[in-house]
Automatic annotation (TrEMBL):
One of its GO terms (molecular function) is single-stranded DNA binding. It comes from Lotharella oceanica. Pfam families: Rad51. This is DNA repair protein RAD51 homolog. One of its GO terms (cellular component) is condensed nuclear chromosome.
Length: 337
């Protein structure tokens, strides 16, 4: 994948070696083509995708019996083993991790280099804090070569609120000196209308990622449709279960295809928080389900004028800290830019 500079064509980037095994390899260990097509119909396109699916899921595929599902699992094990390994092996695998720039050097510094692949990064905050602007910025930066802080791949953009604007992509592309026509062509966009549609789009993503290199998967926002489709405490348990399934699928895609999954989230006022003299009583939607699924959680809040503040709300490797950034015509940037 290559995005050309408006003035000069960038050097040809060598295609990267993919870390996944395509599901067609099952033919080499006795699985017929018809059964492979059945797996693909359920959104399973890699050997790892088989291991990420339960027996219940496999048996739920039309035409897939328990005996066939067991045979598929055994065949997958012959091709790629996902059992125990050493910590050293995990360390080597983590070297494939990439960090994609947010457009702000200070924000990148806060994150230790940028938004990580192989994980879910949750961005939450009230309106006009820059959540969607970050998504638009990443939709451009994700396509840039690594030396420009990019991920050298296409971008998936699932829009649940109707806030995607191609005009913003043009402005951000101009800032980075790349052809906005090419940038827009490399964004795979879909507008989701229900939480079920949102899940179906996520399942369809795997088919695209097996064919071409993608670096970022954006869902803006991840919780809006769940809040609309499920109302009241009576439906809360079902909503949380469906949300958990969606987030589980998202992290599997992140690990399967080495992409950065970026989701935005809404906030709600917590009356109890104000009573306890909290500085900011707002809290993200999704409860513990969202908290456990997201690898890195970033809280955005308003500052002075167009300035905004990003705080590390939760991370397995980053200390709690803050950085200041700014919203501009060219997307997310530093205050002094």
């Amino acid at each position: 994948m290559q995005v050309e500079n408006q003035n000069d064509a960038k050097e040809e980037v060598q295609p990267e070696e993919e870390d996944f095994e395509e599901i067609e390899k099952l033919q080499t260990v006795g699985i017929n083509v018809s059964d492979i097509k059945k797996l693909k119909s359920a959104g399973i396109y890699t050997i790892k995708g088989i291991w990420q699916s339960t027996m219940k899921t496999l048996c739920g595929i039309k035409g897939m019996s328990e005996a066939k599902a067991t045979k598929v699992k055994e065949a997958a094990n012959k091709i790629q083993d996902f059992g125990f390994c050493t910590g050293a092996a995990v360390f080597e695998k983590r070297k494939a991790l990439k960090k994609i720039s947010t457009g702000s050097k200070e924000w990148d510094k806060l994150l230790g280099g940028g938004i990580e692949t192989l994980s879910i990064t949750e961005i939450f905050g009230e309106f006009r804090t820059g959540k969607t602007q970050l998504c638009h910025t990443l939709a451009v930066v994700g396509q840039l070569p690594p030396e420009m802080g990019g991920g050298n791949g296409k971008v998936v953009y699932i829009d649940t609120e109707g806030t995607f604007r191609p005009e913003r992509i043009r402005d951000i592309a101009d800032r980075f000196g790349v052809d906005y026509h090419a940038v827009l062509d490399n964004i795979t966009y879909a507008r989701a209308f229900t939480h079920e549609h949102q899940m179906e789009l996520l399942i369809a993503v795997a088919a695209k990622m097996i064919e071409e290199r993608y670096s970022v998967l954006i869902v803006d926002s991840s919780t809006a449709l769940f809040r609309v489709d499920f109302s009241g405490r009576g439906q809360l348990a079902e909503r949380q279960q469906k949300l958990a399934q969606f987030l589980s699928k998202l992290i599997k895609i992140a690990e399967e295809f080495n992409v950065a999954c970026v989701i935005t989230n809404q906030v709600v006022s917590d009356p109890g928080g104000g009573a306890m003299f909290a500085v900011d009583p707002k809290k993200p939607i999704g409860g513990h389900i969202m908290a456990h699924a997201s690898t890195t959680r970033l809280y955005l809040r308003k500052g002075r004028g167009e300035q905004r503040v990003c705080k590390i709300y939760d991370s397995p490797s980053l200390p709690e800290s803050e950085s200041i950034y700014q919203l501009s015509k060219g997307g997310i940037c530093d205050v002094n830019d």
